[in-house]
Amino acid sequence: MAIKAIVFDFDGVLADSEMLHLRVYRELLGPSGVTIKTDQDCERYLGFDDEGVFRQVTIDFGLLLGDEEIELLIERTHQLVLLRQKIDQLRADADLDALTGVANRRRFRVALVREVERWRRYGIPCALLMVDIDHLKHINDKFGHPAGDLVIR
Predict the structure, then answer these.
(1) In this structure, are residues 60 and 3 in contact, taking their beta carbons and an 8 Å threshold?
(2) Could you tell me the CA-to-CA distances from 28 to 25, 34, 94, 113 in Å, in that order?
(3) Which of 29, 102, 108, 140 lies in disulfide reach of 148, CB 3.0 to 4.6 Å?
(4) Taking the CA of residue 73 as centre, how many other CA atoms within 13 Å lie in the half-sphere pointing to its CB?
(5) Is there a contact between 6 and 57 (Cβ–Cβ < 8 Å)?
(6) pTM of the model
(7) What is the pLDDT of residues 102-133, one digit of tens each?
(8) 103, exposed or middle or buried, with CB in 10 Å at 0-12, 13-18, 19+?
(9) What is the pLDDT of residues 5-19, one digit of tens each?
(10) Please, what sign has the CA dihedral across residues 38, 11, 27, 87?
(11) How far is C-alpha 113 from the geometric centre of its chain's CA atoms?
């Protein structure tokens, strides 16, 4: 039976970074004609580390990759995974208020549109709660911004 695709479970540990690794492998191996999917029937590579995956892929797909090329692929994989993790973290942080960790206006607007669409589509109850801290300027002026920050938190 020919292998149609590859699914990865890096060192047998299910982790948040697996989908990220999968995207990186797709990017790195795609030009070689290797199709990568997450289908359950393609679990051949479960438990492999990066080197094991690349070595087995060379065998299974008849790729002519030497040790140096595999090492470069592993190094590039690590670089891309770290970069993508940083990008994902920056995207998540961009939607949060740095002081409180609460969703900011950008995330609020996206959530509001989504919830209003759901309300219209399904007719389920929808509520909006707005909170305002009265006299925060007075607290900041009288006690300083660190005190105002404590009030907000």
Answers:
(1) yes
(2) 5, 9, 28, 37
(3) 140
(4) 25
(5) yes
(6) 0.53
(7) 888 888 888 889 888 988 999 888 888 877 78
(8) middle
(9) 444 444 444 445 566
(10) positive
(11) 23
Give one DSSP letter per residue of 13-59, joined into a string.
---TTHHHHHHHHHHHHGGGT------TT--TEET--HHHHHHHHHH
Question: Would you state the structure tokens that stand for residue 44, as one six-digit string?
Answer: 């051949």
**Both structure tokens of 76:** 């590039």
Q: Which two tokens stand for residue 30?
A: 């795609």
52 closest CA partner among 79, 33, 25? 25
Structure tokens at 148: 């105002």
* Amino acid sitting at position 20: L
Q: How far is CA 75 from CA 19, 55, 70, 81, in A?
A: 18, 14, 9, 10
Rounded-to-integer distance, Cα 132 and Cα 127, Å? 17
